[in-house]
Amino acid sequence: MQNFGKQFSQELRLSENREPVKNLLLEGPELISLEEEKQEGETSFSFSSDTRRYYLGHKDKKSFFLIEYFDILPNNLSKEEKEKFTKEIRSQGKVNKLVYTLRHGEVPVSEEEMGGLNQSKEYCIAQPRDFEKDLISNFVLNDTNKQIISEILIRYSELRTEEIQQIIKQATDAFHKQGHEAIRTIFSCFPKKAIKEIKAKIREQILPNPQKIEIGELVEILKDGKALFYTGAGISMAEGVYDMDQLEEVLGIEMSEKTDSFLKKAVTNPQEVIDSWEEFTKVAFEKPATSAHQSLGKLAQKLKSQIFTENIDHLQEKAGVKSIHLTGSWLKENVQPEWLRDIDTIVTIGLSYDDRGFLSWYKENNFNGKIIAINLNQQPPYLGGEDYMLKGDCQEIIPELEKSL
User: Fold this and answer.
1) What pLDDT, on a 0 to 100 scale, did the predictor assign at position 186?
2) Which residues, 6+ apart, have CB-to-CB distance to 295 below 8 Å?
3) Quick count: other Cβ atoms within 10 Å of Cβ 42?
């Protein structure tokens, strides 16, 4: 017993002498060195569905892509086009899967070398905060809304009215038998424009109503509390950087189709795919910072606030400060959940979705924490009734905020 007491006393003294880990969320962003400014950017994107995966990357000033089809190749590919794919059996747990692969360029050998896979398990820190999730399912179950959905789908589909109505009935039956996921699977076969319009109708009727806020009120909030900034594609679009929907459109990616234009170009003219991809990477790494990036960098230094981002571009770095490019794994390794309680407000700028689940994680660990979204048009689905919305152009709002502070 004496030995135990002595050991406990020694451990207590050690813990008292040990310096506490600093909360990096209470520090300002790191500045960019001249050497870092000259470094070549690397990026990658992964687009996946149950049937296939497209992977595009840019590394060591070279671009490449990888296409994987699972179990079977599309029937409308010619014999010559199918012969361009290699075939292998890949083990996934206890299941063996047949994978057809097409590579172009210097594709890294392993998943680890590729890095940055958007669909990896480490992509999210928590289930994304999304009040829109499952709303299509609930919306479908309302008889009045079924007619609204039918009219929208007819405009974007070649199917007859009777066929559309049959699909809506199938979706309703699927919900009762299998839940929300079955409905999403059924509706995934429709064009994005149709689903986008249905979601707009849902937003009008069902989404929570966050409180509206003006710039002057936001200035006072930032003066009185500790904030963290979180940027999305909307802050970079002024310099021509694509958001995800635009990137998919330029590349011809349409996962709801069995064979999209991306696949057709990849097997017949792969250089056309590379050219489109390199146009995106050139903008992402070579364009100058926007006025919002410039002002945000100064604002973050003044307030000693970090800048988190979902963007792969380096426009914030062009403003002279580092933004932290989020992944679930980075958050797990570098941020302690209790640190989030020190953050009174997260200000999102041009952020459409809580893709990484960071906002959800923040709310889980800081129930009283507030989210303030600066968005040009629609209300982001991660805002609750207790949160705030400042509608307007971030290229005007952020400089005005920085000037006021």
Assistant:
1) 65
2) 398, 399, 401, 402, 403
3) 15
- DSSP E strands in 6-48: the ranges are 43-48
Residue 67 has pLDDT above 80, yes or no: yes
Sign of the CA dihedral with 261 first, then 264, 267, and 268 last: negative
Each residue's pLDDT tens digit, 306-329: 999 999 899 999 999 999 999 888
Predicted confidence at residue 178, as pLDDT, reads 66
**How many Å apart are CA 222 and CA 213, to the nearest integer?**
13
What domains are defined for the chain?
43-119+243-285 (no CATH), 135-205 (no CATH), 211-240+287-404 (3.40.50.1220)
- Exposure class string for 137-158: b at 16+ Cβ within 10 A, else e: bebbeeeebbebbeebbbebee
Q: Shortest CA distance to 257 belongs to which of 76, 66, 46?
A: 76
Q: Is 249 in a helix, a strand, or coil?
A: helix
Q: How far apart are CA 334 and CA 168, in angstroms?
A: 46
Q: Say which residue, 166 or 14, is predicted with more confidence.
A: 166
- Is the pLDDT reported for residue 121 higher than 50? no
- As beta bridge partners, residue 231 has 309, 349
pTM of structure: 0.81
- Count helices and strands in the chain by DSSP H and E runs: 18, 12
Average pLDDT, the chain: 86
What tokens appear for 246 in the block? Answer: 């635009």
